[in-house]
Amino acid sequence: MTVPAIEAAAAAAWPATESTTLGSWTLLAGDGFSRRRNSAVPAGPVPDDLERRLDDVAEWYRVRALPTVFRITPLCAPMIDDELAKAGYAVEAPTLVMHRRTERGDAIPGVLESPAATDEWISTELDALGIDPSQVGPWLATLAKVPGPAAFVSATVAGRPVGAGLGVVVGDHLGVFEVVVDPSHRRQGHATRIMDSLHAFGARGGASTAFLQVLEDDERAIALYRSLGYEVSHRYWYRRSKP
User: Three-class SS of residue 33?
Assistant: First the structure.
């Protein structure tokens, strides 16, 4: 998978509520939930009027009562990141984007799959993610915008959900999101079962490759994904305006 292909598939699989373009830049907003859905994504050559462009982006977010956040990918010219650093934009959440081939597989014992988020899936995710109560509504609104085909999977023990994950097929790509396991049930193979189920779902849906994003400092998750055959495609980080 190329960087542009992954970035396009990720944007389609985890869509913002509102988006617009300024030249080759994309501006996203989505109720303040998740940096990815509430950030500007510079791409292409450096604009001749870069200072004006940065001011226009800041104004776009200001009128939406959102902080100005840029997501810096390999598609962004280094000069733009340099200018943001000089302007005091702080680096946040350095992230790895990883990918691998999908494979067809049999149904995974103890893993349930649904085309929509069930109450049990939502409860499992909320318990594991520890989302701030004020963000539950925007998080649910995000899930409601996820396109199909999608698979909301839950790993169970004795019929009780102990982990969950989401897979979204976009063309021939599978996006993997929100993979969580209850802390009391970690290191028991549940995350692998969730991932295997999502990979099989993607292959059935025509996806030949899978991708995911993981924070660079999440060594446990990165080790899991590498053990499953994932390799690093690229990295990105955010630049947030001063308070």
Answer: coil
Dihedral sign (CA 139, 144, 147, 148): positive
Distance CA 43, CA 90 (A): 19
Number of DSSP helices (H) and strands (E) in the chain, helices first = 7, 11
| Cβ atoms < 10 Å from Cβ of 94 | 13
Alpha-carbon span 181 to 178, nearest angstrom: 10
CA distance 18 to 11: 12
- pTM summary value: 0.91
Q: Which of 140, 168, 139 is nearest to 152 (CA)?
A: 168
CA distance 50 to 66: 21
At which residue do the structure tokens 């791409």 appear?
43
Q: How far is CA 131 from the centre of its chain?
A: 15
CA-nearest of 15, 41, 20 to 30 is 15
Listed in order, strand segments (DSSP E) in 73-208 are 90-101, 111-114, 150-157, 160-170, 173-181
Task: Give the containing element (helix H, strand E) for 71.
Answer: strand 69-72
Gap between the Cα atoms of 54 and 7, Å rounded: 22
pLDDT in tens, 182-218: 888 888 889 999 999 999 999 999 999 999 999 999 9
d(CA 225, CA 214): 9
C-alpha angle 123-191-205 in degrees, rounded to nearest 5: 85
Bridge partner residues of 208 (DSSP): none
